[in-house]
Write a structure and sequence with these properties.
One of its GO terms (biological process) is methylation. Pfam families: Methyltransf_3 (PF01596). This is SAM-dependent methyltransferase. The chain is an alpha/beta fold. It has one domain: Rossmann fold (3-Layer(aba) Sandwich). The chain contains ten helices and eight strands. It has an eight-stranded mixed beta sheet with strand order 3-2-1-4-5-7-6-8, with helices on both faces. Strand 6 (about 215-225) and strand 7 (about 230-240) form a beta hairpin. The radius of gyration is 17 Å and the shape is globular. The N and C termini lie far apart (about 40 Å).
Length: about 250
């Protein structure tokens, strides 16, 4: 019973604040600065994984699913990337390592505390202006969308890659906001984590309904971050230029 209550409290904290509630995110920043070589993205990633296995589990994409993220970014060869859900900056580190040198990644995070942790880790890893975080959400009445357009070069057909890894109820609304802005182009890739745990059924159903007409989706089977017994699913969806037929998501 006590363990269940702790889990419920953590889920409430995550929903309300974006953090687990026991200080692990702030402790991670200190751990990275103490143990990772300055200016070394690879070492920052290694140290975050080490912390998650040895100190406290984190809710980033993790090392196993991170390989799927790496591969998708390399396939896309993006110039402009958007991340929904910065958390502590781990996904952005992996994308920065995989994306072309001239590419730029903008990450959206609703928790100011998480954004601060991510900035410190990125500064230590030497990412410079290749990656930046905006405190807000795409659903905040246009403020964050306006900043992306005015300050970061977002516009029709400009966005090459999107990584969706924030709160599940916002997956589909935020994808629709991106589509409404016209930011995607034929061949843009949207990668979405946590399709089974905690799950985003409306997002998955939306893509299934449009398979072969608006999207071509691959389903990558994996596990929840930093363990090997709970299964998870990552969707990799390519935005299509026109109808081309299709019967459903293609298993990886």
């Amino acid at each position: 019973m006590a363990k269940r209550l702790r889990m419920l409290m953590r889920m409430r904290n995550l929903t309300r604040t974006g953090q687990v509630g026991d200080g692990r995110e702030e402790a991670l920043a200190a751990y990275v600065l103490a143990h990772a070589a300055p200016g070394d993205v690879d070492d920052a990633i290694r140290v975050i994984d080490e912390y998650a296995y040895r100190q406290a589990t984190l809710i980033n994409v993790g090392d196993e699913k991170g390989l799927l993220l790496d591969a998708a970014v390399r396939r896309a060869e993006p110039r402009l990337l958007l991340e929904l859900g910065t958390y502590c900056g781990y996904g952005a580190l992996r994308m920065a390592r995989a994306m072309p040198p001239e590419a730029r990644l903008r990450s959206i995070e609703f928790s100011d505390a998480n954004a601060s942790v991510a900035r410190r880790i990125w500064d230590h890893a030497g990412l410079g202006d290749r990656v930046s975080v905006l405190h807000g959400t795409l659903g905040d009445g246009g403020r964050t969308i306006g900043r992306l357009v005015a300050e970061h070069g977002f516009g029709p057909g400009r966005l090459d890659f999107v990584f969706v890894d924030h709160i599940a109820p916002a997956y589909l609304p935020d994808l629709r906001r991106i589509l409404d802005q016209g930011w995607l182009h034929p061949g843009s890739i949207v990668l979405a984590d946590n399709m089974k745990v905690p799950g985003a059924p409306h997002y998955r159903a939306y893509l299934r309904e449009r398979e072969g007409t608006e999207w071509r989706t691959r389903e990558h089977h994996a596990h929840v971050e930093y363990q090997s017994w709970v299964k998870d699913l990552v969707l990799e969806s390519e935005y299509l230029p026109a109808a081309s037929g299709g019967a459903g998501p293609v298993p990886a």
